Amino acid sequence: MAKLPGWRELPRGAVILEPGSSVRYKTDSWRVLRPVIDQERCIRCRICWTYCPEPAIIEVEEPYTTKTGRAYRISYRIDYDYCKGCGICAEECPVKAITMIEEVV
Amino acid sequence: MGRKVIPLSGNHAVAYAAKAVDVDVIAAYPITPQTAVVEKLAEFVANGELDAEFIHVESEHSALSAVVGASAAGARVFTATSAQGLLLMYEIMHIASTMRLPVVMSIATRAISAPINIWCDHSDFMAASDTGWVMFMALNAQEAHDLTVAAYRIAEDPEVELPVAVGYDGFWLSHTVEPVEVLDTDEALKYAPKRYRRYVLDPERPITMGPLASPDWYFEFRVQLHEAVEKSREVILRAFDEFGRSFGRTYRPVDGYYTEDATVVLISMGSASGTALAYVEEARRSGVKVGLVNVRQFRPFPEEELYKHVERAGVVAVVDRAINSGSAFVGPLYSDVALTFFKRGFDIPVLDFVVGLGGRAVTRRDFDEITRRSLAYLGKRMRDVKQHYAFIGVRE
Amino acid sequence: MLTEVRWHGRGGQGAVTAAELTAYASIVRGLYALAFPEFGAERRGAPVTAYNRISDRVIYDRSPVERPDIVVILDPSMVNLETVRGLKEGGFIIANTAKKGQELRAILGERYRIAYLNATAIAMEVFRLPIVNTAMVAALVAATKVVDLDAVLEAVRARFSARLASLNEQVIRRAYELTEVM
User: Whole-structure pTM over 0.80, yes or no?
Assistant: First the structure.
């Protein structure tokens, strides 16, 4: 681990000068269970996106057509850099399209 | 506009000081005996005499939080409180200091409940003494005014950037009308100009304030605070010198009276120091070699300045207006004074006299009793003192 | 020289304001003065004590006045020796009372100087309220010259609205004339 700065070098009063620096703080290692979205079942209702406290659900411009022929212009993906595995998305999903599976290291 | 001496209560003297330094944001919640400060400032704002944002809040916790936020955004801020109000602010006091926000607060000192008591002692002020604030205690209404103005220069000094509290005795000063030379805005702002601060909340240049600091980081910021409080010692001296040059009243962290040849030195804070001085002058006329040290700067504690006045004494009597029950020291002022001696290996009896709790008057007679009881220990050492503290003016 | 004054009245009669006006007038004249109340429960009818210390030098003593040079009694029911306890030998009692001369002397004895005024009568006539503070400041000034009348009037004008100041000025001028010094 790199040597951390001493109290003299740190910005006064614990100010963080770089805007948005928290993106560098990845929280993926917090996860015990990982959510997986079944794109076949997902109805693109956006409820998981709304409920995710991180937010680690990303809406992507990725067309998808189900086996039964239902076509969507968008898809939802999990941002596994920040998802902490809390499971709220799986709990809230109205069609049970999200399952929490064991994290494989 | 020239300076003029006008009759003012201590509370109004403080309100005039906040007006003189042209504060930008005021948030305070009324509590006896501080109420008149806020009323007067509200009047100034309503009249247009002071162009400030007056935020009405629902508690002291909110009052200090509001000025912390305003200070973080770069405003010059003021708040005031007493007793339970200060205790409700306690949590935020640490936040103001570690975030290095130059908040200025006046404390009209008052006893803490229970039982409910609106009158003066130093329980509230002393309870805040571990918060990393610079803390002063005024001897009279003029000092309450002057120290409040000086507080802004000290708080906003780039080498300091710390919150400052100015205590003044509830009722004994807050409600006493006396002559006060009021500084006008031009000269007060010349003395304590509003400074550009390096880190302020600004949407154009986003920064983060008050983040989480894990064990890898927290300790460093507490040391930063500690070093800033230490650094404030010299900045305070410079600010006091400049105050003297500008306005003709030069303050020191402590005042010594008749200490050069004193056998007994009394050490006191606040308005009781005035009464103690009246006693000392009277006692000197009848040949009692008693001296007095008034402690004006409580944090950072002025050990060196204090020691210079007491190193020739035979006995030292600390006069405390608060109790820390169950502690080894009993009176909070005593703890700092006793350690000042201990650290220098100086072994004379240092006694503690607790007086004036909950508004009980402290009289010249009390100081006479304290002096007499102290003289009985002359020539002894600390280990000869069976009980180092006593209560003066309490019924058995 | 230090002059110490103790004011006695009941809540609503204005003892605290009387002390403050006296300090104000003294400070206007370049003296150092303190005015402070005995801080009790603030309600109408409760006994109220207030103090002045007036000097040509800075005053340090902040304790209540125990050995006053002057005791001013705003409430006629309090005109007695118990109220004036601690008054210095030869000190001044300034009393609001309808009693006169020897009648008052019989109550207060021979040890003190006495000045008296029926301040309640003047206040009732002008304010239709028994607020006797400004009348008693005038009585204090008439009897002891601790500060001059014009300074008191200046204090009154600084303290009150124009209408109240003018009524108080009437009261003060009349009280100043009617105060009897024994």
Answer: yes
